[in-house]
Amino acid sequence: TRRITVRDITLAKERGEKWPMLTAYDAMTASVFDESGIPVILVGDSAGNCHLGYETTVPVTLDEMTMLSAAVVRGTRRALIVGDLPFGSYQEGPVQALRSATRLVKEAGVGAVKLEGGERSHEQIRLLVESGIPVMAHIGLTPQSVNAMGYRVQGRGEEAAQQLLRDAKAVQDAGAFAVVLELVPAELAAEVTRVLHIPTVGIGAGPECDAQVLVWTDMLGLTSGRVPKFVKKYADLREVMSNAAKAYAEDVVGGTFPLEEHSVH
Ligand code: KIV
Ligand code: NA
């Protein structure tokens, strides 16, 4: 088996095929999704909130993303692995972006990188693509800018919609092979999807996108507390794990684990 490539992703849009993407931050979880046929796995900087215990994605470092991305690559055989460039690793300009992306490609082995920003990031995208590194763009709500924009729906109103369309065209013109649309009105996401020839990957962007992405801990019910409205919970792993931990604790305290069958002589 060979890995899915960005070429396969391009062909999927030409064929009108939709595809799913999930995040993963470790080898074992990634191997489950890979074996389940998820074609694209994103090592998102949502690892900040979902894996590393930060409040936002802002503190995540390139060292952390490199380590997590390498684990996901090692745990998978077929999926295209996309590594997120964290805040501060590409904003200085194209050269910094290339240096950072090169680490994810060479040290972690990712097949593509993702970065946030439309028009504001087009020079970074262009240099990476010219250098042979496929780039997934990310527009609409961009969580690394939480301190400036908060977590609000993006592209509401005529002016904001026009800006989102300009951002979408800018990343396509710069050579991105796909673009994430986060928390964008469904009608606007549908229009972007029609206008672009590269696939749109929606999260909170309605049903018309070419692909969808969810954060795995949200999708599987492991995240504690509330999850955004756009999440569909396919399992309740928090409940499953909590029940198992309690049962184990009871067994140990009550002397019913380990038993003879778990012992060696
Ligand atoms: O970090 C992440 O998980 C993401 C997706 C939500 C697109 O950027
Ligand atoms: Na991200």
UniProtKB/TrEMBL annotation:
Binding residue positions for Mg(2+): D45, D84, E116
Gene Ontology cellular-component annotations: cytoplasm
GO biological process: methylation; pantothenate biosynthetic process
Family: Belongs to the PanB family.
InterPro entries registered for this protein in UniProt: Pantoate_hydroxy_MeTrfase, Pyrv/PenolPyrv_kinase-like_dom, Pyrv_kinase-like_dom_sf
Protein's pathway: Cofactor biosynthesis; (R)-pantothenate biosynthesis; (R)-pantoate from 3-methyl-2-oxobutanoate: step 1/2
Gene: panB
Name of protein: 3-methyl-2-oxobutanoate hydroxymethyltransferase
Known role: Catalyzes the reversible reaction in which hydroxymethyl group from 5,10-methylenetetrahydrofolate is transferred onto alpha-ketoisovalerate to form ketopantoate.
Gene3D superfamilies: Phosphoenolpyruvate-binding domains
Substrates-to-products reaction catalysed: (6R)-5,10-methylene-5,6,7,8-tetrahydrofolate + 3-methyl-2-oxobutanoate + H2O = 2-dehydropantoate + (6S)-5,6,7,8-tetrahydrofolate
Lineage of origin: Bacteria, Bacillati, Actinomycetota, Actinomycetes, Kitasatosporales
Residues the record marks as active site: E182 (proton acceptor)
Subcellular location: Cytoplasm
Residues noted as binding 3-methyl-2-oxobutanoate in the record, renumbered to the chain: D45, S46, D84, K114
Main location: cytoplasm
Required cofactor names: Mg(2+)
Keywords associated with the record: Cytoplasm, Magnesium, Metal-binding, Methyltransferase, Pantothenate biosynthesis, Transferase
Gene Ontology molecular functions: 3-methyl-2-oxobutanoate hydroxymethyltransferase activity; magnesium ion binding; methyltransferase activity
The record's free-text note on cofactor binding: Binds 1 Mg(2+) ion per subunit.
